[in-house]
Amino acid sequence: MMRRAATSFAIIAIVILSANALYAQDKALVNTSASPYAKLSSVNMGDVNWTTGFWADRFKVCRETMIPNLWKIYSDPKMGHAIQNFEIAAGLDTGSHVGPPFQDGDFYKLFEAVAAMYAATHDPKLDQLMDNTIALFAKAQRADGYIHTPTSIEERNHPNQSKAFNDRLNFETYNLGHLMTAACIHYRATGKRNFLDIAIKATDYLYNFYKTASPELARNAICPSHYMGVVEMYRTTYDPKYLELAKNLIDIRGLMKDGTDDNQDRIPFRQQTAATGHAVRANYLYAGAADVYAETGDTTLLHTLNLVWNDVINRKMYITGGCGALYDGVSPDGTSYLLKDVQEVHQAYGRDYQLPNFTAHNETCASIGNVLWNWRMLQLTGNAKYADVMELTLYNGMLSGISLDGKSFFYTNPLSIDDDLPFRDRWSRDRVGYIAYSDCCPPNVVRTIAEVSNYAYNISDKGLWFNLYGGNKLSTKLKDGSPIKLTQTTDYPWNGNVKIHFDETPGKEFSAFLRIPGWCKDASLMINGKTADIKLTPGEYAAITRNWKAGDQLELQLPMPVKMMEANPLVEETRNQVAVKRGPIVYCLESVDLPKGKKIADIALSSKANLKPQLIKIANSDIMSLNGFADVRNENNWNNSLYKEVSLANINTKLNIQLIPYYAWDNRGHVNMETWIPFDR
Ligand SMILES: [Zn+2]
């Protein structure tokens, strides 16, 4: 009996092992290693370890504060109630669902952050935490694979009134999408199948649902995180029906009668030429479509993606990488100019060049969507213009979503704040610890920070790609499996000197593709101490091909002078104003840095501002400020009037000022703030 049991155990073990072997062994965050239409693939999670500098600092705060703090909030019945929702859905507790319908998805995002953190740290406590939580997910999942706590709790409390997928604002597919992504990342980080098995059941459920769903039901696919999730499930399991589902999800869009621009489904995806509607939904859709292209090579998808990308970058994106200008508005005229066809949009892309500052919506999740989309476009093409947008958004529009101490969050990311404005914003003008009823951004920004290291490098059959610079050690394999190790030393983004020391190389020729950022006009390169005669073009990768040896050293100089930027004059809100940039960092002016009695609106910059970098600390974090001179109005008495005559006598007194990085604003108490500053020529 014992022997038979042992034999059975062995057989089961072999079956499990071989079942695992059927799945992708690649451990990338986004696994394009076998994607036929992706030029680049990723290094494995854990291959890059931040050592010192900017991202090492953010990663440390992520590990020590961001993740534990958010986990506590999501476990707190009085705050997140996320774990309690799963317990009630699982029948382990009683009560009602609390929180928005997308709470499950937001909790999966936090779980994903833990999985990514585990991949980098191998902290056994995180592994245990994840296993316990996965056991709970399994209990909350229906036998048919459906898992969504609002509906499951409703089913328990009111049997026979199942409402799955009947309410488009129930966010089931959004939640399922984040479950799939988190499960793939957990599988790659741990090698365990416990969460992946739940995700397989859930994806099978979705596959079967869409086999029979009407377009009207299918329109429930708002905020389509599941396009990315389903493709990642395909990349993990190689199950062709998941790719079929992903293709179908794109094809089915725009087929219903009452689609909206807000949901990007008024017209079929392939007929779209511009970014419209809810910016998070839009950017998730574009990222998902890029994933489908990577697997299918369907050029009609790429055609739309290129048109929409150009529209966003040239007409609709903030200088911070933020997306979604409008709190509320109308789509650019719907199907016609008739009033009856005008459609309401919210949290949405505006018209071309419509980029207000005070009322910029710029949801943190939309910035993250911009990162996810541009990352995927980079994987498809190897074109550095996508890495430029990704870097810009990571350092500015994404990072502004979280405080330096890692404990509070912005939902919206305006480019100016002035308390003299008499209206109340819908969302807080200061970061808050928990965004009640809309906590999508906090776990999204935390998972992104946990995962930035995965964006630093790529590999292709030609060699190794350097996308993001930061102090780190890389230990990975080239496409042919040969090992490579290197050490990168830099104070980037505060300083453009980047040293790369090869610690171990394959002993054969390959290319190092160094990204020359689009903002850097005068890059130079030394190889083993000698100036390299290689053309370094801004906004491109420079390929340096040779038989790299251990001990070889690259030294890249990316000069980052202070630059005053102006916007196309069609952006009326920024006419005659400048934004200040240094390297990839956008700067802003905070009222806390002005003398008492002076207001943000009194300040102007001129070409004589003479802004110089100076290392300071804010909230215990190293920050490069820019210090120089501003022009200031001496009198600014408006007496509540709307207009007055210009008085030349009142301007042009010099004042010492300090600008700080936009992402670091609102870390020194409540302030007024401005990114676009009037320019005295
Ligand atoms: Zn959000």
Explain this structure.
The protein has 681 residues and is α+β, with helices and mostly antiparallel strands. It is built from 16 helices and 24 strands. The strands form four sheets. The chain has a seven-stranded antiparallel sheet with strand order 1-8-9-10-15-12-13. The protein has a six-stranded mixed barrel with strand order 17-18-22-21-19-24. Helix 14 packs antiparallel against helix 15 (384-398). It is globular. The protein starts with a helix and ends with a strand. The model is unreliable at 1-16 (pLDDT under 50).
Descriptors for this entry?
681 residues; alpha+beta; six-stranded mixed barrel; 16 helices; 36% helix; globular; disordered N terminus; binds zinc ion
In terms of topology, how is this protein built?
Layout (H helix, E strand, L loop, with lengths): L1 H21 L25 E3 L3 H22 L6 H8 L13 H19 L2 H17 L8 H9 L14 H19 L3 H19 L2 H4 L6 H13 L2 H12 L25 E2 H18 L2 H18 L9 E5 L13 E6 L14 H18 L2 H15 L17 E2 L23 H11 L5 E4 L2 E4 L5 E6 L5 E8 L6 E8 L5 E7 L7 E4 L2 E2 L8 E7 L6 E5 L4 E4 L11 E6 L2 E6 L12 E4 L5 E7 L2 E12 L20 E9 L11 E2 L2 E4 L1
Parallel strand pairs: 7-11, 19-24
Antiparallel strand pairs: 1-8, 2-4, 3-4, 5-23, 6-7, 8-9, 9-10, 10-15, 11-14, 12-13, 12-15, 16-17, 17-18, 17-24, 18-22, 18-23, 19-21, 20-21, 21-22
This protein binds zinc ion.
